[in-house]
């Protein structure tokens, strides 16, 4: 249990080194707590999607957030609080772990920022892929939805 809470005692300590035990105990702790806090949200979300009234009722679109139970809302707030409380110690213990492996903490920051950038790029690609076709012909050819330009299926 000592290893789980050591990063909290070294909250803003980005210098020095951390053993694997400290890093992995803290990581496992945050993973387990996060799963426990997400579980009620997932259960409510599945209940909403599988409820007969959600898909077949008079207002099939509805606002699914209205169907979330109070436990889900408490979980959402607790999850947000947990992320705020564990972000800095998680960052610090990871930087110290990189130091222990002989790497600069800036390597972690670069990898983290790169992951965020790739996530944003992936989201942008997803959104662009969802956009409807542009009307008419453009420099890449005719609109594939145009009934006169359906040579793809002929």
UniProtKB/TrEMBL annotation:
Q: Which InterPro entries match?
A: DUF805
Task: State the UniProt keywords alphabetically.
Answer: Membrane, Transmembrane, Transmembrane helix
Q: Where are the transmembrane segments?
A: 21-43, 74-95, 107-131
- Stretches of the chain forming a coiled coil according to its record: none
Write out the GO cellular component annotations.
plasma membrane
| Extent of the signal sequence | none
Q: Name one Pfam family in it.
A: DUF805
Task: Specify the protein name.
Answer: DUF805 domain-containing protein
Species of origin? Erythrobacter longus
